[in-house]
Amino acid sequence: MAGAALAAVALSITACSSSSTTGSSSGSSLSGTLNGSGSSFQLTFQQTAIQNFRSIQSGMTVNYGGGGSGKGRTDLAGNVVQFAGSDSPIPAAETANFKGKTVLYFPVVIGPITMS
After folding, report:
1. What is the average pLDDT across 29-49?
2. In angstroms, rounded to a whole number, what is the distance separating the alpha carbons of residues 98 and 76?
3. Is the pLDDT of residue 52 over 90?
4. Quick one: how far is CA 38 from the chain centroid?
5. Which residues touch 23 (CB under 8 Å, ≥6 apart)?
6. Could you identify which of 5, 63, 64, 96 might form a hypothetical disulfide with 46, taking C-beta atoms 3.0 to 4.6 angstroms apart as the criterion?
């Protein structure tokens, strides 16, 4: 499941990036580099998903650095990365940073909150 989530993100982002793709009707082989940053809560999941994704798409290099949701959103708005992990959607105060860009949301990790 982790690999499938990252594959979906990679395929959608690859279509908009400068990474090249090659494929045939029997399968698809991707090549290029995707960089991401953001939520440190998601870091372990992202690392596992990247490892699983590389096992089926060895031509891709995917990097993800933590640093927090705010850093991920800032890096995405500034074109430093192609994807970002965030614990919440983009706050209204930050939407101006994304003018002219389409941001797609893919829930990948759920963090439960409990009342103890």
Report:
1. 95
2. 8
3. yes
4. 9
5. 29
6. 64
26 lies in some domain: no
CATH number at residue 46: 3.40.190.10
Question: Is residue 112 assigned to a domain?
Answer: no
d(CA 11, CA 44): 21
Q: Structurally, how many domains does the chain consist of?
A: 1
Q: CA gyration radius for the chain?
A: 15
Q: Is the pLDDT of residue 15 over 50?
A: no
Domain that holds residue 49: 31-106
d(CA 35, CA 113): 29
As a whole number, the mean pLDDT across the chain is: 82
Q: What are the beta bridge partners of residue 61?
A: 33
Report yes or no on 19 lying in a domain. no
Rounded Cα distance between 29 and 12, Å, is 14
CB 75 within 8 A of CB 7: no
